[in-house]
Amino acid sequence: MSEENRINIMEETPSPVLAQTTQQPAVEYASITERFVALAIDYGIIFLPLKGLSWLICKWLGPTLEMWQLIGMAVAINAVFILYETVFSSNGRVTLGKNLVGIAVVKKDLSGPISLPRAFMRAVGYYVSAFLFFGGFVLAFVDDRKRTLHDIFGGSAVVQLRERAGWETWALRGLGALLLVLFASSLYQSFGGRNWQDKYKVRQAQDFLQNIAILEEGHRIRYGQYTNDILRLALLSGDPVQFQRDMRQVLSTGRGSLKIGVNGEVYKISAKAKDKAQTPVYFTNRP
Fold first, then answer.
1. Which residues have CB under 8 Å from 204's CB, separation 6+?
2. Looking at 128, 159, 191, which one is the last position of a domain?
3. Sheet holding 280-284, edge to edge
4. What is the pLDDT of residues 30-72, one digit of tens each?
5. What is the pTM of this model?
6. CB within 8 A of 113, min separation 6: which ones?
7. Are 173 and 160 in contact, with CB atoms under 8 Å apart?
8. Radius of gyration of the chain from Cα atoms?
9. Measured between alpha carbons, how far is 88 from 119 in angstroms, rounded to an integer?
10. Are residues 209 and 131 in the same domain?
11. DSSP H stretches of helix in the chain
């Protein structure tokens, strides 16, 4: 496949010379591994810095943050991703990840780049695909043009923009396959397996300890020191009754299940989750 023909796909109007020499651009559709590498790059560009900023905000403001503010931050992060994908997948532009991999989004009939509204529908389609237990991405394995559900939403296809050396092709395939395996393994650990309910209960316990850690930071800001008194932290939460209910719901209520050790500027919170094995969980601010 020639470089000239691949680049021609991204033009709104084919040049007269090419129109005379060929009736349809010769293209090669991007594989699912290539696309996954590009998506991983774009995900890292958007989500990792913004999630890091959110973590700093949560650590700085601590217990003063309300639930609607936390939800607002999550919505804002995903809105930025949708905006990024919309702008850089339309009118001949490409995202950084796709540019590095050498692929681009075009109309399904290969007549040119997709419009801004179509790119927006395609970006929203990512979340529909994910909501369907990532089944929307699986379509690329069976579709003859390797289109996913969000491609169908956007009336698009993803094609290669340039020829690659053999080593580059195999490197992309290998990296993409590795990322897919790691992603599938992560999903299995989170939702699959026979003990997924127990894993969920352990995660709930860990999240609750992180909430206690936020209260510890608030106590230090207000009183100048950390505390091992869980009742003081419950009062600091603003709703001690709900705090006790949440604690009984996610932590084992056995004797000595929840412990807080304080040593100057270091504290450690330990407890037992409410799964069958009563898995020990802990949180510490030690670097």
1. 249, 250, 273, 274
2. 191
3. 259-263, 266-272, 280-284
4. 988 899 899 999 999 999 899 888 888 877 876 677 778 888 8
5. 0.59
6. 10, 12, 90, 91, 92, 93, 104, 105, 106, 107
7. no
8. 25
9. 8
10. no
11. 3-8, 16-21, 32-61, 67-87, 96-101, 116-131, 135-142, 149-154, 166-191, 196-223, 230-236, 240-250
The residue with tokens 């217990």 is: 63
Say how many CA atoms lie within 13 Å of 123 toward its Cβ. Answer: 23
The range of the structural domain enclosing residue 230 comes to 196-284
Domain end position, chosen among 191, 222, 243: 191
59 with 89, same domain: the answer is: yes
How many separate domains does the chain show? 2
Pair 55, 69 in one domain = yes
Same domain? For 56 and 136 the reply is: yes
What are the pLDDT digits (tens) for 113-145? 999 999 999 999 999 988 888 888 889 888 999
Pair 282, 270: CB distance under 8 Å: yes
Could you give the CA distance from residue 34 to residue 174 in angstroms, rounded to a whole number?
A: 9
